[in-house]
Prior knowledge:
This protein is an all-alpha fold. Helices cover 77% and strands 2% of the residues. It has one domain (2-210).
Amino acid sequence: MAERHYTAPMGKFWQNDWSLTFLLGFLMVAVFVVRPLEALGFDLHMIAAIAFTFILVTGILHVLHSPIGAVVFGVIAIVTVIVQWSRFAVGGADWIGVDAGASLVACSVLAAIVLVQVFAEGPITSQRIQGAVAAYLLTALAFAAAYSWLEARVPDAFRGLAPFEGGHDPMQGFVYFSFVTLTTTGYGDVTPVAPFARSLAMLEAVLGQLFPSILLARLVSMELYYRQRAFDREQATLDRRELAREVAKMLREIEEK
């Protein structure tokens, strides 16, 4: 009973598969609409940060039934939120690397929460498939944050991107590069030149190939398992009804004799 008390009401957001649809919609807007508009001069980062903070906090509330998970994810959420809003208040290029590091951890944690929801016990729904897509997008965003953090620590680690001069945040360029790398498209307009940058890009490319295949295999196996369970339950119900009819028939025959 105590667990329900701590997770309600916002923690229940993640107990419904429709939360995965909401998250996917938010990520699609954030990645493919908000960031390009920011590049055109529209200041929408504050709205996106508020929405991301809400999703992250509700995800943390969902894991409060695990004491260790509550402590670990709670600390991550608090640090991430503080860094996000401190960057708005203070600003400056010095906060770009810190914000990138916090975003890396937050996206990774949120992806883990989403995958837990996707692989939770129960039949595979369209919302869970959408959650898997959301986890894929979060993976790309996590790598984009990792590239941004690396560029802040190792200048000119990438060729083809605008530098950090004047507080400029090239995160949009790294998001583009991350998705290109994750899907192994490889246009070649942005290239990693530093050793660690190349290692990260290779890791993301490998993960981009393995993630869909492993995820698809897992979802298919879960769907087959639950379909088999549903068939077994239905068959057991039919067997009980048939047995009841046979017993009733035998009783009638006994009474007639």
